[in-house]
Amino acid sequence: MYARASDSDHSLYSRFPLQQAAAQGRSIRELILLGVRVTLIEGKRPRSKRVKFPLIASDGPKVDLTNEQIYEYVEFP
């Protein structure tokens, strides 16, 4: 199901907790407590900013189309 991590792959996000703990020089208990602390206590993310549309502003000419004009050229199911 999961690919086995190679010896050189001791990343923070390893799927094997025992290997991850060993790579960091920690016990499984320490690794679990660290995960809980980071997730529950320190895991408060700053509120995301609202997105302003359009995401990519165009300098090209503006096109004014109605839905009826679009339906003439594009077939919708």
Write structural notes for this entry.
With 77 residues, the chain is mostly helical. The chain has a domain at 1-45. 38% of the residues lie in helices and 0% in strands. The protein is built from three helices and no strands. It has helices at residues 17-24, 28-41, 67-73. It is elongated.
Shape: elongated
- The secondary structure category is mainly alpha
Q: Please, what is the average pLDDT? A: 76
| Strand content bin | under 5%
Instruction: Give the number of DSSP strands.
Output: 0
Major sheet, described briefly?
none
Q: Cα distance, first to last residue?
A: 39 Å
Poorly predicted segments: 1-12
Q: Radius of gyration in whole Å, from Cα?
A: 25 Å
List the secondary-structure elements in sequence, H or E. Answer: HHH
Helix content: 25-40%
The tally of helices reads 3
